[in-house]
Amino acid sequence: MGNRQEILLTGAGGQGLILASIVMAAAAVNDNKNVVQTQSYGPEARGGASMAGVIIDVDTIEYPKVTKPTVLLCMNQTSFNKYLPKVEPACIIIADSTYVSGSYSKDYKVLSFPITRSAKEGLGREVVANMLALGVINAASGLINREIFRASIFEMAPKGSGELNQQAFDLGYRLYEKGSGQNIGASSQTPQ
Amino acid sequence: MPETKPVLMQGNEACAVGAIAAGVRFYAGYPITPSTEVAEQMAAKLPEIGGVFIQMEDEIASMAAVIGASIGGMRTLTATSGPGFSLKQENLGYAIMAEIPCVVVNVQRMGPSTGVPTAPAQGDVMQARWGTHGDHPIIVFTPASVYESYYLTIAAVNLSQKLRQPVIVLLDEVIGHMREKVTIPEGKLMVEKSSDKVPSDWKPYDEKGLTPLVPFGFGHYYHVTGLFHDQYGFPTGDPPQVERALDRLHEKLEKYRDEIVLTNYIGHKEPRVAIVTYGCTVRSARSVVKKAYWQNRLPVGLLSLQTVWPFPAKEIEALAKQADVIIVPEMNRGQLVGEVERYACGEAKVVPLNRYDGEMINPDQISEEVGRWL
Amino acid sequence: MEQLTQDFLRTKKLPHIWCPGCGNGIVTAALVRAIERTGYDQKDVVIVSGIGCSSRAAGYLNFNTLHTTHGRALAFATGLKMARPELKLFVIMGDGDCSAIGGNHFIHSARRNIDLNAIIVNNHIYGMTGGQHSPLTPTGKKATTAPRGTLERPFDLLELARGAGATFGAKGNAAQPRQLEQLIIRAANHKGFSVIEALSPCPIAYGRRNKLGGAVDMLRDMKEKSISVERAANMDEEELEDRTINGVLYSIDAPEFAEAYYHSIGKDIG
């Protein structure tokens, strides 16, 4: 079961992470992969912390929960502090430097990009930061065929906003290709 | 059947899609986590196809309205979770007694009482069996995937119609809320049609066996009651008639037992250690058996139960003759394990494996228990 | 008295289970005559009832009859009406059935203004269980569960219904069956949630315990206290003390729920 990829999207409620996980899962379906999507529910999902998981595999997916993330996205400081210590060093860790800063264990390689800021400054719409994040994730992990992913984003976007969301996704790719920012540089400290 | 392209779907949504495919055109319900998505899907879809969606004042009324609509000739479904399922028990018993078809979905959450509304559990297995008072029969399906949520809902609707018996689809929060890839035959009606012809000697509760429900409004002036009744529906307290009527309710399930009881076995033909489970826990167990048997050829097997009630007694009896140990993982303090023990008849050692902290039983837990007995 | 329409009675199911002097038979007969006068097709009429003495009426009437669970008759009826809006539903309930255990369904049926005819046979007591006080038992009256007289205040059922949104409310009684019959006809012709409160004597479980005499005394008292809406309009509060106002108390035009629903999905229910 070495093909099992577990993507954990974390951040604050309202950042569109649940929707991002659904779009990603739908894209995986369109790319002919097996996929399971789960999310945190309850009052905490309506304001505070938000968490969603996507599991992608060529085999049938049995256990539906994320246990060993292969990709971790942290869209705020709280989630970064909470989930970083829980993943293995081999995990691809992506942080939104708009909100995440500070030191962390040097065992981890954190890819840091100004996700929300780029959405706001590059596209004038902070709300598409989630699709931008998907672009970064897919560029970093290559999990899903890029064109299929783009098409899925268009398909699932609210009427009239398909292109904007695709632009956000593409901008994510460009951010990744430019390289990780160094504003949350490596350190030997694990954040408290 | 032409299969359409796979889609991403949530378990609760698949339940609603299955219901509509099976001809359900009436939904009455009350909002409750983690089942609300079923209601939301029905509220969106039913009006588009000429169906009725109504949000009632409580769960008691929802169950009553569903029965009323069934008597009017519609295929009906209602969905709820723990606390709401408790409220539905009253009129669920009525539907059993009056032999009115309907499907009740209970997306289990952590109880008792308000419990942890968003956490999964499998604590309603016995309530689904015995929740309403009296010595009644019941059919309960336990889907373990989004696709099973779809097709077991279809099976529930059709069986309910055929047997004139309420059927419970006992989902859990994991299956209800998770999304996964499914391939669903689009727009296809999965309705097993019953005969439109009403025999000239039609009786609403024919002693001879199954008889179709002729809806109200077609000139057959029968009586429907929750009291014990004769073949025509009129109340009776006559002991032989009462006994006969209760036997009749049970016999119709016994007669169609093989259509009702759905199980699936994977693994070694002569397992030393077998797992028996249902609902979301099947997924963890299956990943263990795939690894232990498919990869490592260990004598391990899994009997997953799509039907928990009527209890798959003969399947357990047969399994107990093969296995030395039967492990029963459940997200409760041990409910169905008692039933497994009863039908294992001492032929196999029955071991409960329980978790009730609001988290799923994971493969490691099951694997560890299996390892202990190999 | 003219012969009751035998077609609408299940004569083989008679005699009924009611006690001598009970008003349920009178109310049931008024209902049968009213249904006959409406000219409804027998197959379109459905009698729904709850649990209690009066709810047993359903079993004696030759229609599609639905004897439901305690308090839930209106909820069953709501489902049936929504599934088959062309049917004419008469829902028979007792006072405890409707206003205690069924109170929630009662106010929500009124709120929706669904086209059901609710007939509440009010004998001020739980008869079938042997005389416990109900939400319509007058303060001070005795019951097995209020041996010193109930301290609770009763609902004004028709005002409760009006407050909740009912669009037709009428009061009648078993002592004036012709008027009751007319009220039921008017309720049937009203589109929306119609409530008829029919006072009915229970000499066994209520009258005897409260020294109200036998059935004849109770009926006479009922008739004497009754006053029409028209006459009451010209009387002051003092004159109306201890009187029961009979007749149609309100009849309001408002959108009916089943019709509104079907209209919203592009179907005409006629």
What features would you describe in this structure?
Chain A has 192 residues and is α/β, with parallel strands linked by helices. Chain A has a single domain, classed as Pyruvate-ferredoxin Oxidoreductase, domain 3 (3-Layer(aba) Sandwich), CATH 3.40.920.10. Chain A has 6 helices and 6 strands; from the N terminus they run βαβββαββαααα. Chain A is globular and about 40 Å long. Residues 185-192 of chain A have low confidence and may be disordered. Chain B contains 13 helices and 15 strands. The longest helix of chain B has 18 residues, at 146-163. In chain B, 39% of the residues lie in helices and 20% in strands. Chain B is globular. Chain B has a 7-stranded mixed β-sheet with strand order 3-2-4-5-7-6-13, with helices on both faces. Chain B has a 5-stranded mixed β-sheet with strand order 10-12-11-14-15, sandwiched between helices. A two-stranded antiparallel sheet of chain B has the order 1-8. Chain C has one domain: Thiamin diphosphate (ThDP)-binding fold, Pyr/PP domains (Rossmann fold, 3-Layer(aba) Sandwich), CATH 3.40.50. Chain C is built from 11 helices and 10 strands. In chain C, helix 1 packs across helix 6, helix 3 (95-101) packs across helix 4 (103-112) and helix 4 (103-112) crosses helix 5. The B-C interface holds B 26, 28, 47-48, 50, 52, 54, 56-58, 60-62, 64-74, 76, 90-91, 94, 215-227, 234-235 and C 13, 42-44, 46, 48, 58-59, 62-69, 72, 75-84, 86-87, 104-105, 108, 261, 264-265, 267. Strand 9 of chain B pairs parallel with strand 2 (64-67) of chain C, so a sheet runs across the interface.
